[in-house]
Amino acid sequence: MTTKREPRYDVIIIGAGVAGIYQIKRLADLGMKATVLDAGGDLGGTWYNNRYPGSRFDSESYTYGYSFSKELLNEWHWKERFSDQSENLRYLNYVADKFDLRKYMQFNCQVEAADFDEANDLWRLKIDDGRELTCRFVIMALGLLSTPTRPRYEGMDAFKGRSFHTFHWPHEPVELAGKKIAVIGTGATAIQLIPEIANKVKELTVFQRRPNWSAPLNNSPISSKEMADIRSRYDEIFATCASTPGGFEHEPDRRGFYEVSRQERVALWDRLYDEPGFGIWLQNFREIFTDEEPNAELSKYIAERIRQRVNDPVTAEKLIPRDHGFGVQRVPLESYYFEAYNRDNVRLVDISEAPIEEITESGLRTAKHDYDFDIIVYATGFDAVTGAFDGIDIRGIGGKTLRDKWNDGPSTFIGMFVHGFPNLLMPAGPQSGSASTNYPRGIEIGVNWCTDFLEYMWEHGYVRANATLEAEERWTKLVTKMYSKMLMRKAKGWFTGYNSNVDGHEHGKTRYFVYNGGTPKYVATISEVAAKGYEGVVLRSDPSVTSEFPVDILDSVDGVRVSK
Question: Contact 176/318 with Cβ under 8 angstroms?
Fold first, then answer.
């Protein structure tokens, strides 16, 4: 009889960001042999890499932090309602050091490939330093927005000045004073960056393909007294987050849009627009997400607020989206973004009117003009959600690649399993409840569920877990059906998988990336899956059994337990 090979690790976690840090904490507490691999030079994920000026939370800081430790909650003082990158990174380092998690982490460690060994029910990971690591389970703690995309202009390597994507903003200070700067893009990142640097540079030219709806962040410091009050209410705060669709403190207005007068609606919008955070998006009427008429009325209101903030009427109109309504994509929050265009040293170039033709040695050329710059900043977004997965050659049963399986869009079971890729878990994967909600709250839900599942596997001696095709198809159909009710289905954004800089992600091919049922429904669903013995997942205890059984046979056959 052939001896089955045992893996080096019980679990390998890929990614040392917010999800990876919490996941290794849970596994270390259970005594599992686990490690974290990260391509970066240190922990932090998003907050390690995104160091561009203005980078900060758009979730309230105190709802973004971890909730698992009362001691941690009582120790940490969030300095701002919406904390910036440096503070966020300091927080994550504090957490890792407090709980002694660094010893489990390996940095500058790029995973190039992951192959499932069917004979031994384990994963083989190939690292860029030549090593091969084995584990029973792989947990993909990859950021939703962790694979930057650059535009595909001719001559990008010809530019003699400095150029970089915002994701790769240098760790050392960048001298901006007296410089002529180009920012290409007006998405969420650019909306944070532009007002932060506008008063520091000689000239700032913004190249916009499509305008983006945005609303004021209305950030402010958090005093010691305010922080003490927040600490006393943490249980209430997290309970509220757990009860709202978006996982924030912001609860939708319980009134129907058509139940109140126009005057009452405007009064609500005036109040929400001037309040901190996502209130104007998430405390609004539910109909704005599903009904064209309410959404159009709200969009007109936001457009008028933009006009009030931009002095030049021509520029104002260029900053108002025409191809989608307010709130049908994740709304970037800004601090004096629109006011930045009132400065004499800031100009807006509409590249839908004059496309960029090439990058030159001295700057760039549009169809109408040549521009000279000292620095070009590409604020051109990310290959969202699945991009980080595509960056690893992941092969499951029969050598099939995950990239090929997801070529037309992801298909998962509850956003955590992929049929044909046993023992691969995603606590915040595509079609999970994390992407469309307050991300850390979603992360904790996913990590806790995955950890409970692993405990169950270990307690029962199971060595393989594979979602059934039926369960995967059922979940993906549910996610797809939810899109049919949402206005977001018509928008060009990462919620629908649109990215003109990624082959195959052009407009017209919707990718169903997010679960739109809200946090309470998602938690109820995954809790039911667990309560029914992980229904929809085939669990196997005998590595010598090579066949898997359909979901309609006996519960147990020759060491194989099938969840129906």
Answer: no
